[in-house]
Amino acid sequence: MQTHDTVSAMQLLARETHATGQTLGFVPTMGALHQGHVDLIRLAATKADVVVVSIFVNPAQFGPNEDFDRYPRALEADLEKCREAGAHHIFLPSRETLYPKGYSTYINEESVAAPLEGESRPAFFRGVTTVVAKLLNIVQPDLAVFGQKDAQQLAVVRKMVADLHIPVEIVAGPTTRDADGLALSSRNAYLTASEREGACAIPRTLEKIKSMVDQGERRAERLVAEATHLLADERRIRVIYVAIVDPATMKKQLTIEPGNSLLAVAAWIDQTRLIDNTLL
Ligand code: PAF
User: Fold this and answer.
1) Buried b / exposed e across 100-129, counting CB within 10 Å, b at 16+?
2) Helix, strand, coil proportions of the chain in percent (round to 5)?
3) 30 pocket-lining for ligand 1 (C-beta < 6 Å)
4) At what angle do helices 124-139 and 151-163 cross, to 10 degrees?
C-alpha cells in the first residue's frame, strides 16, 4: 500500500491504471475509520482492480460552531485498517493542497441538498459537493463508494455527478451496525456509555417503524408521528428531524412506497449529533 499527498501523483496513478486496462475504485473518507469504512473499502475491492482511499477532514463541510477541531484523527490506525481492508493507495492531501490561499470555487447542488441536513447544517453540502468533485477530478476513479448511512449525501453526490456529467459510477455501501444496533459513525467516539444507551433509541425506532410498514401501515404522517414519539420518550435525545422522503430526491412523501421510501432521523444526544436512516 502506498501513500500520496500530491494531485499530480494521483492523476498519474489514474493514467497508469487505466492504460493497463485496470479499473479504479475510490472510497473518500475523513479518517477516524471504523468497520463501516472497512466494509466500504472491501466493497470497492470486490468491484475494482485498484482501490484508492482518501483521508481528509474537509474544513469546508463544517459550520463555524461545529466539531472540525475536535473531529477524531487517527492516521496510523487508519492506515492499518486501509491495508487490512485491501486498499492499494491512500491519498492524504494537506489543506493547502485542496484549498490553497485564494481558493474561490464551490459547488452547490440546490435541490436534493436543500431539506433535512441542508436545513440544519447550511454549510455542509456545499462543502461535501465541492470536495467530492475535487477528489473525483484528482483520483479519476471508475467507481466511488459512499455509505447508505449518509443517505442524503449519497443522493446529493449522485445528483451532482449526473448534473456535471462526471464519468464515475456511484456505488452505495450498506450501513454497518454495532451489536446494539447503533450505526457506525466516527462521531460515536464522542458518546459516553450512558449517552450511547440513549442513542440506541434511534435504531430501535427505525426498526419499529419498518415493522409497522411491513404490517401494512402506509401513512407517512402516522409513521413520522410514531417515530417522533418513540424518540421523545428517550430523555437523552433531542430530535432535529424525522422525515419520510424519496431516497433520490429527498422530497417528503405522503404515502409509503415500499422499497422506495426513506425514513431519515437526525438527533442530538447531549453534544453529539447523529443521523441514521432506513429504507421502508
Ligand atoms: O462522508 C464523509 O466522510 C465525507 O462527507 C466525505 C464524503 C469524505 C467528504 O468529505
Assistant:
1) eeeeeeebebeebbebbbbeebebbbbbbb
2) 40, 20, 35
3) yes
4) 60
Say yes or no: CB of residue 28 within 6 Å of ligand 1. yes
Cα–Cα distance for residue pair 223/20, rounded to 1 Å? 52
What spacing in Å lies between the alpha carbon of 115 and ligand 1's midpoint?
Answer: 18
> Is 128 touching ligand 1 by the criterion CB < 6 Å?
yes
Q: Which atom of ligand 1 is nearest to the CA of 56?
A: 10
Ligand 1 pocket, residue 234 CB under 6 Å:
no
Q: Is 4 a known active-site residue?
A: no
Q: Is 41 left (phi over 0), alpha (psi -120 to 50) or beta?
A: alpha
Residue indicated by cell numbers 421523545? 232
> CB–CB of 29/91 below 8 Å?
no
| pTM reported for the whole predicted model | 0.97
Predicted local distance difference test score (pLDDT) of residue 66: 92
Instruction: Report mean pLDDT in 10-residue bins for the chain, 280 residues.
Output: 98 98 98 97 98 98 93 96 98 98 98 97 96 98 98 98 98 98 95 97 98 98 98 96 98 98 97 97
The three grid cell numbers given for residue 105, joined into one nine-digit string: 470555487
Domains of the chain: 2-173 (3.40.50.620), 186-274 (3.30.1300.10)
**Ligand 1 atom 9: residue of nearest CA:** 128
CA distances (Å), 279 to each of 164, 227, 254, 261, 270, in order? 27, 14, 15, 6, 27
For residue 124, report the distance from its CA to the centre of ligand 1, in Å: 10
- Check pocket membership of 127 for ligand 1, CB cut-off 6 A: no
Q: Is 230 helix (H, G, I), strand (E, B) or coil?
A: helix
Query: Which residue out of 4, 18, 34, 37 is catalytically annotated?
Result: 37
Mean pLDDT of the chain: 97
